[in-house]
Design goal:
The protein is an alpha+beta fold and about 110 residues long. Helices cover about 30% and strands about 30% of the residues.
């Protein structure tokens, strides 16, 4: 399955003022801020969102949100958010804001 181009366009539009770098990877398209991935339109639908790992349990308590897995192993600091949780621009913007905050924190900790 290819990534959801409509979702990618919405992410780009909502992030426009941040001038994100787009990068195709893992069948999806990611949006980088400060050299770090913040959010991606996933190749399997929905979005992958960088988060503060300490928020994972709280954020996963809602529907349609779970830890991202790669090769069967959970990835700390990343969530998979189902497309149904991204229907409104407000909902999508909230996930973008989390991703940008986490990417910015990761960028500043490696500078």
């Amino acid at each position: 399955m290819a990534y959801d181009e409509e979702l990618a366009d919405r992410i780009q539009a909502l992030m426009d003022e941040l001038d994100p770098i787009e990068k195709k990877m893992f069948g999806g398209i990611g949006f980088m801020v400060g050299g770090k991935m913040a959010i991606a339109a996933s190749g399997t639908g929905g979005a992958l969102v960088r988060i503060d790992p300490e928020e994972a349990d709280r954020l996963c308590s809602g529907p349609g949100v779970r830890r991202m897995e790669m090769r069967g192993k959970p990835m700390d600091g990343w969530l998979k958010v189902d497309a149904g949780q991204l229907d409104s621009d407000g909902d999508l913007q909230a996930w973008i804001d989390r991703g940008v905050a986490a990417a910015s924190a990761a960028s500043s900790s490696t500078s």
